[in-house]
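hey m, so remember when u said the tokens were messed up on ur end? i reran from scratch. heres the input so u can diff it against urs
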Amino acid sequence: MSVQVFVAANAREGLARVRRELGDDAVVLSTRPHPQGVELVASAYGDLTVAAAGEVADSASGSRILHELSRLRGMLQNQLAGFAWGAGRRRDPVRVALLQTLFAAGFGSALARTLAARLPRGLDTDAAQRWLRQVLIRNLPLLGRDADLLARGGRYALVGPTGSGKTTTLAKLAARAVDVHGAGAVALVGADTYRIGAAAQLGVYADLLDVSLHVADDPARLAQLLPELAAKKLVLIDTAGFAPNDPRTRDVHALDALGVRRIVVMSAAQQGAAIEQAMAHFGQGAAACILTKLDETPQPGAALDSLIRHRLPLAYLSSGQRVPEDLHAPNAAYLIDRALKGGQLATPYALDAEDWPLFAGVEAERTERRAG
């Protein structure tokens, strides 16, 4: 086992030397005061792990020791990440300010770091913020007017997690389609056989709009029903909502084989992790996305982040319960401005200046776990 002693004027300089000479994964075994400042005893993590594993491979305490070493490694990486954040803020304050803007607005670290790495040099803080706004606007995918779902018609199934607002959104789309094509050209299909009252709720909308309503109890009935509706300009299918990790979410992909295009309905008010799960399970191969409950979220950054990274075009926005008044065409500039403004809200969840180094340490630890 290779153990080295480092003497420095303070702990920060000592940790920097440890990292420089032994690598980012070095483990500090002990620290104590020294006439010249502080003394650190450290070892490369790989050397320490091999030695510990060899000595205690047959001992019940071996796993505990390795676990403790891993914990110490994480603590060191966390601390060094905090130091790196402070150093980066002094060295490149404009880039760090851009990262802070994105994090505060709810954008994830993957997109934030990608954009920060592409920030042109020589910009001041205001110019960098303008650059960021324009880049986000350009990269937010929107469904073009020539690809408008209602105007083109077709067979569309609204899919997404429970509570995302699929049935109400379907009613809004149907009402708009009736205005465009007439009631006789629109049909609704209820394929949600899990939620009590789902068909009855859809029936109320169908009666109000004077459009035909059909119920498909299973995929076989849906496959039989679709050819019967071939004369309809637009067929909208209401599907059951499941949690993203529910195995039944795989059933939505069977719609593709029936010539039905999927539209993901996703609540902008969800947490970023929930949005990412929904996108991973429902968004693959989907035609577009509809963001709902925009009126319920002060920070839509996480939803926009997911759309940008997954390149799923946004077709409509829903911001209330009124049918069809609360359905809108998306505007990229409005959405990005709203997201960035949300990062300026004074809430108990906003980070103070002294919190950012700790945040950087947590992000570094998460990155390490994902990589490991």
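this time it looks ok to me. Confidence is low (pLDDT under 50) at residues 56-60. if urs says something different then somethings off w ur setup not the seq
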